[in-house]
Amino acid sequence: MSAVTRLSMELDGWQAAWKQLEAFLDRVDGVADQDAPHVQTVCALLPVFNVIERARRRAVGIALAPALACAPRGEGLPAVSVGSLVGTESRLPGVEELEFAVGTIGTDSDGKLTGDAVLASTVTLFAFRDEKHGGEVAVRVPTYDFGPLSVSGVVPAAIDAGLFTTDQRKDAAESGVAELGTWTGLRTARRAKLTTTSETVSLSHVLDGLSASSLSSAFDAVASGAAARKSECLADRSVLLQAKATVQEQGATPELTDALQRAADSLQASATDYGAVATALQPPRTVIASVSGLASLKTTLRRADSPGIPGQLSNELTTLDTEAGKGMDEAVAARLAYPDGPLRMLRTLEWSLRFHWVFRQRWFDARNRAALAPLLRQVLKPFCDSLTRVLAGQSTGIPLVGPVLLVKDTPTQATALSVTPTVDLGLVQAGHVAHVGGERPTLALVLGWEVKGTEKRLRIAPLNVSIATDAKLPGVAGLVRSGSPVDGSAVSISTQELLDGHSAAGPQADGVVQE
């Protein structure tokens, strides 16, 4: 069996192995596509709930901290540590809670479940070029929505404080039916644990404690706070409008999109009120000297803090909280559905791919050392030797015995040369380069040889023959005539000819340079 045949068989094996990986990747992509509408909804609504919490802080002085930044599959986010996932009790539930709900439960030395969440680090398995994905693609697993996890680790007590507790998992395993917690329920539980202090008061409460007899400097905190809240409201308005555009694409209910628009308008009104307070408290602050002027300012600030009932969210934000909560609960439930929700399936497949790649990589390494690399060296040696000789202006080194002629006219881009049937081609190997003479000379890269009936043929890479059509040039454009010699004679090719793509001998010999 020739080295070329053995190399072809080896490459077939590599192709089959890669097709297995491609099938795995396609399955991962397929599940990710199923998850995409839900993860986009989650990632669009979490900033909305951050906006609502900031409005709650302005109204009552206390709220949950913002959720972790997120994006579908963590695209564009920096790496995070396990430490950033710890201590979530005072934070708005984020995408990490979904990972805890589908992740592994920790065990102690006796094998008993601890209620801790065990998360694997994100690793890059390999990179490849693919037209479907547009250029080079790095395969990373797991693709956490909060970004790559730098190091594997444990988040203490995260399971039992989350959406799918240890007891719920046991019940699901035994009955086949899972009773998961809801996102809004988890948020409500966390809000209930918040405690107020003397410092957790609204800005309007601070202003209410001042009077016309107060020192001017006592109003500094209110002035700067109002200016900051104006900017915050305008930024939050933009967040809501962006969320509206995103959830509309995902088919959100009209009630949700309408609530987002109304809440955005409410924030614009609050920003206007905060701006009025900040402007009025700019030096020389003449308004604070007037009892009626200060009273009016207090009314404006109370309206900015709580556009509806004092100490509560505005009606618009309350409605948004309800509608967005419905959308969030639906998206989270869809992703976590037991046992085959798309997020569960995605993490399972990514985990499987991670271990499959370990063994496949070992196979690639072993086969490369034992078979592929030696065969490539053996098969490519004739080509490398011939090419080196051609560039040095020497004989191509093709071992043809006796005179060899073409016995058929051969057009450009032909993949075979019919030669003298009596010639001995036994020493010719794939990779040898032949010089094809005649009026339209060129070079041919030999891939092998064969006998068909009474014909003996050299199999070649598509032939390049000059197609110059000037009537003064010898030969026929794009054709090598029957009777032209096929041998290993030297050709002279300069660097400039290679750069120009044209032969110094004339256009009729351009095939040599092009080949």
Average pLDDT taken over every residue: 91
Helical residue percent? 40-55%
Order of helices and strands: HHEEEEEHHHHHHHHEEEEEEEHH
Class derived from helix and strand content? alpha+beta
Terminal residue distance? 29 Å
Relative strand content: 5-15%
Model description:
- The chain is an alpha+beta fold and 515 residues long.
- The longest helix has 58 residues.
- It has a domain of 105 residues.
- It is built from twelve helices and twelve strands.
- Strand 3 and strand 4 form a beta hairpin.
- Helix 1 crosses helix 10 and helix 7 packs across helix 9.
Condensed summary:
The chain is of the alpha+beta class.
Topology:
Layout: H1 3-60, H2 95-102, E1 104-107, E2 113-119, E3 123-130, E4 135-141, E5 153-155, H3 166-175, H4 183-192, H5 203-208, H6 220-249, H7 254-280, H8 291-305, H9 315-336, H10 342-391, E6 410-411, E7 416-419, E8 433-436, E9 442-452, E10 455-460, E11 479-480, E12 486-487, H11 495-500, H12 510-514
Antiparallel strand pairs: 1-2, 2-5, 3-4, 6-11, 7-10, 8-9, 8-12, 9-10
Helix pairs in contact: 1-6, 1-9, 1-10, 6-7, 7-8, 7-9
Based on the model shown, name its key terms.
515 residues, alpha+beta, five-stranded antiparallel beta sheet, three-stranded antiparallel beta sheet, 48% helix, 12% strand
